[in-house]
Amino acid sequence: MNTPPVPLFARPVGAYRRLDSFTLATIIQTETWRFCREFLDHRNDPKGRWFDQMTQAARSGRANIAEGSENSLTSKETELKLLGVARASLAELLSDYEMWLACSGALPWTREEASAAFRTPLDPFPTNPREGLLRTSALHSRAQRAKFARWLDSPDPCTRANCLMVLILRAMLLLHRQLRRLASDFALTGGLREQMSATRRAARSAYPRPPH
Fold this sequence. Notes:
Blueprint: H1 20-39, H2 49-71, H3 76-103, H4 111-119, H5 133-146, H6 149-152, H7 157-189, H8 192-206
Helix pairs in contact: 1-2, 1-5, 1-7, 2-3, 3-7
């Protein structure tokens, strides 16, 4: 059964923090920074370009989810565009990890090797955060990161890279589903102007002007 689209101004501020895609993007950004700090140096990245590109792509993935979701209040088109940018940034980061493995003489995991990390479920975001949304979001991301600790804390950089590739693929899949849902919502409700016009017509019908 399809759920109805959320009215434009009914979304709470910061609702994106409850999304699994944002939680995964948070883990990806922090772990990419950690990976680059530990495994990129003057020998394999003498000018620091790889470090900059990977950390910036990871940041862009997370930041554009937040920015796009907050723009949903005034522009569905901008939300769709920025979520698309987030997904593209993660695709760029995936390519960088793929090339890091290739340059290290390693290979990506097989489907069987990746299945444990790919199927590890995330916990639902707390429905009534008691410690404030920002702190609850940080605690939630930390708790979800712990589910992948056996790979992300491995002394083998190839294991870490492969786990991050799995997390990136999961986040991209979720963003793809979000984009499809947003496109469906847009087809039903339109953008800001259309929704404002519909609201105004509904208000006029509910409260007609008295005759002169």
